Amino acid sequence: MMVRMTPQHAHSPAAPDTAHAVAERAAEVAVPPSSGRRDLAYTSYLRVVAMVSVVLIHVAGLSYVADKDLASPPRAVAAVLTFGTKWAVPVFVMVSGVLLLRPPRERDPMTFYRRRLGKIGIPLVVWHVVYIGLFGLLVADTAPGTLLARLLRGESFTALYFFWLILGLYLVTPLLWPLVEALSQRTLLVVAVLLTVLPAADLVLRQTISYLGTSISGSDPTLVTQFLPYVGFYLLGYALRDVVLRGAARVVVLVLTLLLLAELVVQAAYLPGWHPGIATKIGVLLPVSYQGPLLGLGAVGVFLVVHSFVAPGSRLATEPWSARARTLGDLTFGVFCCHLLLAYVLARATGHPTFYGEDTIAGILLQNAVVVVGAFLVTAVLVRIPVLRRAV
Length: 392
Description:
two-stranded antiparallel ribbon, 2 strands, 65% helix, globular
């Protein structure tokens, strides 16, 4: 067999009750940590490689934007690191689906919301205050109306939209659980009311954003709709949770995924300079965005390939490898929160007034490595400090 479905241990009558309990405890933060189960070990690896990719998108992207020479080798490296890693956000959402869509024993949405908000609420407030205060007021001196408009769009600063994206997915998770008909009428009513309020809230926010003097198109998201394009990835992650590629299938998907990512790099970084007209036409059907079809396929490919190499019976899915991956995976939410601040501190420490991108290959690789490693180390320290660990 080239494709194998791994056993669903927690759903088997023979599985111990503790297995299901462990799975429930696994979904504790915005990007949920995996448990110690071998069939979930791959989620820790996915979270680590996806978070490293997020950092590369933001840091290498600075070098890419600053270098306009299409023939520049450093620009080529920056382009690969920037556009070859765009699959990270959909993969994060898929991992969240794997770990959060398993129906819990207690199917009360209010309990689910209370637990999740207890984990993400403080980090959301803290990091919005940090980034808006530092980069919106002190560094850029942005007008209050513009700051408010950005907040209402859920895009106060680079990557902060992810908080609102995950909050939106939390909101609809109870509706996506299997056997939803088992929920009480009262429970269904609570969720239905919340979902019914969303369109009205979205309309009010759009009108407010326009009133504040910032243009917004019908396709632009607001903080209550950031999650909508990702519901499919959320479900897809859970649907593919037991699919393990074997033999030729794994090789084929790996090669196709690499080709897809290479196409995204060429299309985004080079085709507009080589053939603007062709780039525009291709961009209509195959846009390079998180909702674009090729990037979506690339994200699915990365998900399947990593899972195939970290299958339950593989060495990477057993101790001590899985424990190390799980330790790093549990730090990824903190890395997401602090890596941009660390990149800014690094810029100031090296004599730059604000964010910057290195202009040599060695410099690009070193800068990105310092931010990646530094963010993991900072988070590892913060989680050991009683008060500060609530922010990561």
